[in-house]
Specification:
single chain, alpha/beta, Rossmann fold, seven-stranded mixed sheet
Length: about 260
């Protein structure tokens, strides 16, 4: 008598509806993919996809509009917060986010992000910090660590001549218009879970009209760092987290009352 296998497959995970069914252009091991997935999962879980408008930056994330399955616009380099400000003010019922790298937000776009935060614009900013200009060849960025070698600091960043790295979360948390500013990491399961919770909180802040929110994600760049993905995760943990401590840098009292 033939044995009949009654076992059935159980679907444990599927692509979020807020992501398109395409392959990304990111390098193997790049944590942009993790950030995309977390943001998309939260949007699906909150059932806000039809309300979403994203603003793409210039950099490795320039094609984000191809990967997120909701309305997107493309901003000039560094100007995503300014464009998001205009979109949100014209369409206040929408949920508006920017997705930016460190070369975009912390360099050419520094004036835009500082003034959007100080005005308390009711937008959500996702900031990817991988300590270099990823798209253009791995040059030194405003976030490059002291002593870190890049294609434009081949002897390591010299703080005496090139200055110190910019800590964006600490900087923006000092502005009165900021309501929720935190730093998370995408290097291990625990931190990834905490990152997802922070994304949910950031969107809740906007939905409740509480003002400006920004999440800084510590991320890896294996190609430009010249490391494997596994080694890059270790380097992030050993070098980036000590210089860029994880935590909540600004939580407005009204935000602290939100339960998620």
């Amino acid at each position: 008598m033939d044995m009949i296998d009654n076992d059935t497959e159980t679907l444990v995970y599927s692509r979020p509806n807020s992501l398109t069914d395409v392959s990304t252009h990111y390098c193997p091991g790049c944590t942009h993919g993790i950030a995309h997935r977390l943001i998309a999962e939260v949007i699906d879980e909150m059932n806000i996809r039809e309300k979403m408008i994203g603003v793409a930056s210039v950099g490795c994330s320039v094609f984000a509009y191809n990967y997120f399955n909701f309305d997107f616009v493309q901003a000039p380099h560094g100007r995503a917060p300014a464009m998001a400000t205009g979109v949100k003010r014209v369409l206040p019922e929408k949920v508006v986010m920017t997705y930016q790298g460190d070369g975009d937000m912390a360099s050419i776009g520094m004036a835009e992000i500082v003034h959007a935060a100080t005005r308390g614009e009711n937008i959500t900013v996702f900031f990817i910090n991988n300590t270099n200009y990823g798209m253009t060849g791995g040059q030194m960025a405003p976030t490059t660590l002291p002593g870190q070698k890049t294609t434009s600091s081949q002897n390591g960043r010299d703080v005496e001549t090139q200055g110190y790295p910019i800590r964006a979360a600490e900087l923006l948390s000092q502005l009165d218009g900021s309501s929720y500013v935190v730093r998370r990491s995408l290097n291990d399961p625990k931190n990834i879970r905490l990152a997802k919770k922070a994304i949910r909180m950031a969107f809740e802040v906007q939905l409740r009209g509480l003002g400006f929110s920004m999440i800084e994600f510590l991320s890896i760049c294996p190609t430009n760092w010249g490391m494997s993905a596994s080694a890059s995760m270790t380097w992030l943990e050993n070098n980036m987290i000590p210089y860029y401590p994880l935590g909540d840098y600004k939580v407005h009292p009204a935000v602290a009352e939100i339960k998620i």
